Amino acid sequence: MQEILKADCINKFFHEPSDFHVLKNISLSINKGEFVSIVGKSGSGKSTMMYVLATLDTDYTGNVTINDIKVTGLKQNELAYFRNKHIGFIFQSHYLFPEFTVLENVMIPALKLNKKSVSNIEKDARQKLGLMQMEDFVNHLASKLSGGQQQRVAIARALINNPDIIMADEPTGNLDSANSSIILDIFRNLVNNGNTIIAITHDEDFAGKSDRQIVILDGMIRSKPIKTL
Q1: What is the model's pTM?
Q2: Superfamily of domain 3-223, CATH level 4
């Protein structure tokens, strides 16, 4: 299988209020088309690891390579461009702009990347929203949607630049069981279509239905159980 992300000997320290070794010699490899859950107790280091893998945190030792590009050591403006082009982000809080329509929210990352015409970006955004069964809400304000609808719009936004990897931080954390099940089904369909998903989650059902779980304990990978679907 094609490797899409590799981390080599990642170490990360916090220095306030005192020195703390939060990530300890983390090495891992993720293949294209995998659905991987990162699990662990609060304070285990899993969120910090996600920020390092997503290039949002650059204060570490070791190396991160994404899609054969060594991202460690890139300048901040280079990383910002790389993230927008190669990584789609989904958060527990969807971070939609409430005063913008659903369509406008989904278009924003592509407008920022500025690789296509506005008309083509709009066409792509409508197509992504169709995948989320949100095509009937394109002109609704984001603030008028339910939590589950907002998360589906956030997923469409994460897909707009056809990223190599989707990074999801507690994507079902604010949702009820019915909407969590919908989001999980969407994720599985995305993976079946070749997308790569890396998700932090406390949701045991969500993690159990991913392809692989990476367990973080005290800043180290303790085990990597594989779930057979």
Answers
A1: 0.89
A2: P-loop containing nucleotide triphosphate hydrolases (3.40.50.300)
